[in-house]
Amino acid sequence: MALIPLPLERLLRQLGKLPGLGPRSAQRVALSLLQKPEALAELQRNLADVAAQLGICEHCGNLAFNGRAAPVCEVCANPARNTGVLCVVEGVADIWALERSGVFTGRYHVLGGVVSALNGVGPEDVRIPQLVKRVRTDEVQEVILALGASVDGQTTCQIITDRLMPQGVAVSTLAKGMPVGAAVDYLDEGTLSLALAGRQRVA
Ligand SMILES: [Zn+2]
Which CATH class name applies to 82-201? Predict the structure, then answer.
């Protein structure tokens, strides 16, 4: 008989692959859940709800809370948001950080990653083609690149700038007051507000 029952073994393997969790932490999480059946049941319900009720916004790539059929996020569904300005971010957590700062009134475009030669991620692997198309069809006047100050973040900014140049849209990046190597979702609201206000036009 196996020391660890097969269903638990499978769960441990999955948990151990999650960001921030290694095999030891996965074990701690799983054993703690097993000791509290009500917590396990609640987790099961939450996972099922998230799977059933969350979708990806078909316009911007943000999370949408209105199910999987034609999902549209809160920002895109809000008629008060400025459709002429797009803020390009790496992930959904960056939208949360920018929304907390409360200074941005336009819409977003989530890339779902950054271009990285080292990790084999090309421009077509993130939502850059969709961005170029959106700028054209939505008559966007300004694109703000709110990507991290890492090498990959800056490479991605350059690629997007090159591709948007022929469309005559204004392109700016966050001000250089951002700490080198900083991820957007780690910045406090004050720094982020200043970085956004001091954005620099690059095209
Ligand atoms: Zn959206």
Answer: alpha beta
